[in-house]
Amino acid sequence: MTAGKKYVVGITDHMIGSPDLEAEVLGDDVEIDFFASTDEASFAPDRLARLDALMVWGARLGPKIISHMTRCRGVVRYGVGYEKIDLTALDSAGIPFANNPDYGTEEVADHALAMILSLHRRLWKHDARARGYTSGWQVHSLKPLPRSNKATVGVVGVGRIGTAVVNRLKPFGFHILGYDPGQPPGHEKAIGYERADRLVELLGRSDIVTLHCPADAETRGILDAGGLARLKPGAIVVNTARGELIEDLDALEVALRSGHLSAAAIDTLVREPPGDHSLLTAWRNREDWLAGRLVITPHNAFYSDHAAIEMRRNAAKTVRILLDEGKLRNRVTDRS
């Protein structure tokens, strides 16, 4: 350990340069070991053995790596999701784990709302088609196109972000359904939405479905072929949550080609960057049948200049509290 330092905190990687903000929050008595890699195989055992805590962004954390972390008092992820973290291995090693849920709420909600409004108003399809109009400019209306207050939005997952989406939807007059069995009775009254007791009810009644739930044993593939078939014909789907919620691109392509699904907007995919698939090829090539109906953004719904700073400071603060008080806030204990 460097002279004058009391603790060693490892940082696997993050999106923005060197960990200067983290160093500021963690303090002068902390030595930072910046691995600068998402490849867990490159993390040397002797470096892992020195760590009092580890901060993780995009790297995987499996049993082999965890077995070397004999001094570690906690692992903190910069983001919210933790699909790449082996919680069982951490639990077996006696190392608690925390995520970072209190950043980016506004950004993801804004991103989802922008997708909802743009697809509902069919802006991207207007843009795609208008390039070829040579006459009768204003007569090229797209139908159907209901008013906002004649449409129903189904929000799957009414936690922090889902609630922020509900609050943003209200001024536009949408009827809002919410499905979240984890929320207590009366939550819908406090927030202001109609509770759907069953997911199938929400899917069948909603003109637009927006996903804001984690990917777990109950939700992975929630919109597979069967889930998509349960959607109201002509529905719109928005996913700013987890790629695993719509992991069947074959089924998504069938639903879009048939017209059963009017449009989809996706910020998260199972594989990123996405590989080869006929649906993705049609999207990349702006094929006429799909133009303006599939919107994909590169997993950046969470981002703003302010959120990026907030994310890093919050994660580092969680580590600092752990080192000072032995308490890990935002601890994740769910093993699903």
TrEMBL record:
PROSITE patterns: D_2_HYDROXYACID_DH_1, D_2_HYDROXYACID_DH_2, D_2_HYDROXYACID_DH_3. The keyword Disulfide bond does not apply. Residues 22-332 form the D-isomer specific 2-hydroxyacid dehydrogenase catalytic domain. One of its GO terms (biological process) is regulation of transcription by RNA polymerase II. Keywords: Oxidoreductase, Plasmid. Transmembrane segments: none annotated. InterPro entries: CtBP, CTBP_dehydrogenase, D-isomer_2_OHA_DH_cat_dom, D-isomer_DH_CS, D-isomer_DH_CS1, D-isomer_DH_NAD-bd, NAD(P)-bd_dom_sf. It holds the Pfam family 2-Hacid_dh_C. GO terms for molecular function: DNA-binding transcription factor binding; NAD binding; oxidoreductase activity, acting on the CH-OH group of donors, NAD or NADP as acceptor; transcription coregulator binding; transcription corepressor activity. Residues 113-301 form the D-isomer specific 2-hydroxyacid dehydrogenase NAD-binding domain. Belongs to the D-isomer specific 2-hydroxyacid dehydrogenase family. This is D-2-hydroxyacid dehydrogenase protein. It comes from Rhizobium etli 8C-3.
